[in-house]
Amino acid sequence: MVEKAYKFRFYPTPEQENLLRRTLGCVRLIYNKALAARTQAWYERKERVGYKQTSAMLTNWKKQEDLDFLAQVSSVPLQQSLRHLQTAFTNFFSGRSNYPNFKKKRNGGSAEFTKSAFKWRNGQVYLAKCAEPLPIRWSRQLPQNCLLTSITIKLDPSGRWSVSLRFNDTRDLKLKPTQKQVGIDLGIASLLTTSDGEKVANPKNLQKLHKKLRLAQKSLSRKTKGSNNYQKARLKVARIHAKIKDSRVDYTHKLTTQLIRENQTIVVEDLAVKNMVKNHKLARAISDANWGELVRQLEYKAQWYGRELIKIDRYFPSSKRCSNCGHIVEKLPLNIREWDCPECATHHDRDVNASINILRMGTRVGVSEAPLEEVRRKGTPTKKAAGLAVSVCGVTVRPEESKSRKAGAMKQKAPNSDVRESRAVS
Questions:
Q1: What pLDDT, on a 0 to 100 scale, did the predictor assign at position 363?
Q2: Are 264 and 237 in contact (CB under 8 A)?
Q3: Measured between alpha carbons, how far is residue 30 from residues 35, 43, 99, 102, 115 in Å?
Q4: How many CA atoms are closer than 13 Å to the CA of 192, on its beta-carbon side?
Q5: Is 0.85 topped by the overall pTM?
Q6: Phi and psi at residue 137, to the nearest 5°
Q7: Neighbour count for residue 140 (Cβ, 10 Å)
Q8: Looking at residue 395, what is its pLDDT?
Q9: What is the dihedral of CA 333, 339, 340, 342, to 10 degrees?
Q10: Which residues have a Cβ under 8 Å from the Cβ of 344 and sit 6 or more positions away?
């Protein structure tokens, strides 16, 4: 059984849109008030405020005369916003995200309805305080005998309404096993190159609409902020961004699904995309390539369909290593796309050679104790020992455990709660 969510467009009636917009506004208000209260409590009184305290604050806020409109919408999305804030703080203190930000109206918004705030009747969705069902555009059928666990209503910056139906899928989705294995090298000129020598072109969705987007943003910058013309120009920019996003996500889904269906084992590099986009010369191209989302989709789809996804160390020299003899060249600039090995004189395509090395590094080949010790001692595995570092012991391929890796390990072991608590509330 896997947990899934199907997303659909819907077109609310004027009454429904009025109610939903008021709900989103109340959710945003409660989230921001709770965030401000938790931050203020810490900086002024060094007091730790958690979910239970903010839940009690919500009860008091509803009793205030200037906030009596909070009772006009369902209480479940308001309570869920406090849980989302608690999750945001948990991720912050765990080092997985930055300090929570205040929600803004121009970003649209979302509201989550649990089982007590909606009904599923005759194939229609009825929300709390709403008499008519949501006019959903059913683009695909829900699995039979599925039970909805929650519903999320979202309004994106371009003004589109969508509903996400979350349910537990009890179907057996595992595909028929196959013997095919593939290594993938992600890139910019070619979105990915497989160990079979196949190159998938990068659609460059942002580049196709970049000129149109630039003109729309220039027009927006000339409008008076808050005016009607400003809102029209902002909506035009948001729609262009939505079109770019939709085409990028659609292409990524189709590509990852094809890779999962055709291969039993997929090996990729564990790239630090957040660090790579700090390079201002490549940030836009890397973000448009959507590497992080591509790997994320491969990860959960492999789990759904009974495939295996292996991530190798990001510091493995896949491009500089000869896939024929194992020789590693000292330097290989990015502008060199083809090179000849100085040891065996084999001619290599940079991306194809990297994908072959990635596959060998990730798959289980020649498991024995002798090569394993060689991996641990030299840091870089030999051709016979490929795959031991990931499949057997997870050892790094960086020589002698470099300083940055040691620093990261020490940082993880050191207690850091006091340092983080000095920045924000728990």
A1: 75
A2: no
A3: 8, 20, 17, 11, 21
A4: 22
A5: no
A6: -90, 95
A7: 6
A8: 40
A9: 0
A10: 322, 324, 325, 327
Which of 66, 112, 185, 288 is catalytic? The answer is 185
Q: Nearest-CA neighbor of 319 among 410, 426, 416, 187?
A: 187
Compute the CA torsion angle 80, 83, 85, 88 (nearest 10 deg): -130
Tell me the residue type at 326. Answer: G
Q: What is the pLDDT of residues 53-86, one digit of tens each?
A: 999 999 999 999 999 999 999 999 999 999 999 9
Give pLDDT, residue 2: 86
Collect the ranges in the chain with pLDDT lower than 50.
364-426
From 196, 202, 171, 35, select the one nearest 103 (Cα to Cα): 35
* Marked catalytic residue, from 112, 269, 288, 313: 269
Catalytic residue flag (residue 185)? yes
The whole-number pLDDT of residue 284 equals 92
| 351 belongs to the catalytic site | yes
Q: Which of 351, 400, 401, 421 is catalytic?
A: 351
Give the percent of the chain with pLDDT over 90. Answer: 69
What is the DSSP secondary-structure string of 129-152?
Answer: T--SPP-EE--SPPPTT--EEEEE
